[in-house]
């Protein structure tokens, strides 16, 4: 079987956390035909950001527990104009390409394998699907934010409707609370203003709690200020997120 290492990076970690980066690749892949429909832009620097987050998680575990634990990860190196891994298989690539199909299936099979292993070993799994957005693309009239969380209206975290009083009683609530304390604008996070909120894409919905028991997913979108323009802000965000995740798993 043809090796797909050129197209996908992945590794099994040592805690029940998975980082997915489906739109960060910039590999041109002349051997895969270009998609003719759908969004095709790269979420620039999201792979580097995920790698930095892994390092921050490793650091905090080493400092607090004296062991360098790391999450699992699955990254696509393929440019999004060739394959969109956050879409259903019928919409993700040119259907005439057997190679594109192999890459797509391998990416999703790896996610499923890591989730299954996490649940078997830890009885839970959390997947962060990492994306990027451009601040200039925010619709007019919406609050300016640097982080957007998508959880399919919480169904990817809890699987079934819960009382409004418990909406923040989960890892999403921990993330929102922390970044509001840091005065880093996050959505959802302001109940009285229009917010540029996303529900999460195919990966978030397919692998979340409404579909797989004890599997939680969050689509987390980082602004271009974090990913590209402000390295001090990026460091604060990633250190804070690593702290939240450490507390969540401990």
Give a short overview:
This protein is an alpha/beta fold and 250 residues long. It contains seven helices and seven strands; from the N terminus they run ββαβαββααβαβαα. The chain has a single domain (8-249), classed as 3-Layer(aba) Sandwich (Aminopeptidase), CATH 3.40.630.
What does this structure look like?
The chain is α/β, with parallel strands linked by helices. It has a single domain (8-249), classed as 3-Layer(aba) Sandwich (Aminopeptidase), CATH 3.40.630.40. The protein has helices at residues 46-65, 98-122, 155-158, 171-181, 202-206, 224-229, 231-249; strands spanning 8-11, 17-21, 72-76, 125-133, 147-150, 186-187, 215-223. A seven-stranded mixed sheet has the order 1-3-2-4-7-5-6, sandwiched between helices. Strand 2, helix 1 and strand 3 (72-76) form a beta-alpha-beta unit. Helix 1 (46-65) packs across helix 7 and helix 4 (171-181) packs antiparallel against helix 7. The relative contact order is 0.18.
List the main descriptive attributes of the protein structure presented here.
Aminopeptidase; 7 helices; 250 residues; alpha/beta; 7 strands; single chain; globular
């Amino acid at each position: 079987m043809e090796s797909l290492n050129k197209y996908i990076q992945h590794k099994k970690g040592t805690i029940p956390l998975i980082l997915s980066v489906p739109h960060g690749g910039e590999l041109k892949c002349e051997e895969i035909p270009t998609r003719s429909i759908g969004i095709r832009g790269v979420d620039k620097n999201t792979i580097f950001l995920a790698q930095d987050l892994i390092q921050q998680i490793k650091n905090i575990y080493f400092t607090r527990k004296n062991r360098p634990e790391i999450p699992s990860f699955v990254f696509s190196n393929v440019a999004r104009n060739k394959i969109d891994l956050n879409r259903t298989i019928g919409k993700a690539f040119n259907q005439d390409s057997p190679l594109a199909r192999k890459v797509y299936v391998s990416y999703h099979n790896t996610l499923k394998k890591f989730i299954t292993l996490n649940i078997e070993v830890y009885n839970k799994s959390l997947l962060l699907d990492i994306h990027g957005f451009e601040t200039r693309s925010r619709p007019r009239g919406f609050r300016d934010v640097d982080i957007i969380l998508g959880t399919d209206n919480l169904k990817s975290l809890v699987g079934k409707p819960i009382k409004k009083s418990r909406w923040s009683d989960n890892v999403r609530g921990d993330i929102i609370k922390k970044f509001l304390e840091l005065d880093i604008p996050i959505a959802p996070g302001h109940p009285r203003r229009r917010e540029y909120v996303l529900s999460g894409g195919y990966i978030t919905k397919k692998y979340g709690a409404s579909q797989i028991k004890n599997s939680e997913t969050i689509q987390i979108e980082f602004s271009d200020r974090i990913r590209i323009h402000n390295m001090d802000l990026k460091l604060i965000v990633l250190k804070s997120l690593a702290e939240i995740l450490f507390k969540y798993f401990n």
